[in-house]
Design a protein that fits this description.
The protein is an alpha/beta fold and 148 residues long. Helix content is 20%, strand content 39%. The longest helix is centred in the C-terminal third of the chain and has 17 residues. The model has no long low-confidence stretch (mean pLDDT 97).
């Protein structure tokens, strides 16, 4: 599993010129899956991501985690996180899981975040989405299950 985390001031998902979901301050999580990923990997990566201390405290030091009461999470499927650009100019996506298994793992990710009690919104799996984002910092973190 690969996850791209962006700290945001706001984020909106647009499909066919219509805003389908939006959040204010929080995390935008792009999630992608590969062969062998399962719920234990989802749990490990999501627990790590949601516990990162990426917000400033009263002294301006980056020291606070996501606040379940005030902050929100936007979850977007992103198979292109498994792009292989080693050869040629067109990325290969053979390391990305197929869309049937990907949808299942994406839904498990959303359910897990929901069960943890976070306020969240989602993109729409396998749709052409426009992501509008005000990245705060900008803070962008990459998590890969193979590195955890």
């Amino acid at each position: 599993m690969r996850l791209l985390l962006l700290v945001c001031k706001e984020c909106q998902i647009e499909i066919n010129s219509k805003i389908v979901s939006s959040i204010e301050r929080g995390f935008l999580l792009f999630v992608g899956f590969t062969q062998g990923d399962d719920f234990s990997i989802i749990k490990k990566v999501i627990d790590k991501a949601l516990s990162l201390r990426l917000f400033p405290d009263q002294n301006g030091k980056i020291n606070l985690p996501l606040d379940k009461e005030q902050d929100q999470v936007m979850i977007v499927s992103q198979f292109t996180l498994y792009a292989d650009c080693k050869k040629g100019r067109r990325p290969s996506f053979v390391k990305a899981i197929n869309n049937v298994e990907g949808r299942e793992l994406y839904n498990k990710t959303v359910d897990y975040i929901k069960n943890l009690g976070y306020r969240f919104q989602t993109g729409v799996f396998q749709e052409d989405m426009k992501v509008h984002l005000i990245n705060d910092g900008p803070t962008t973190i990459i998590l890969d299950s193979e590195d955890l």
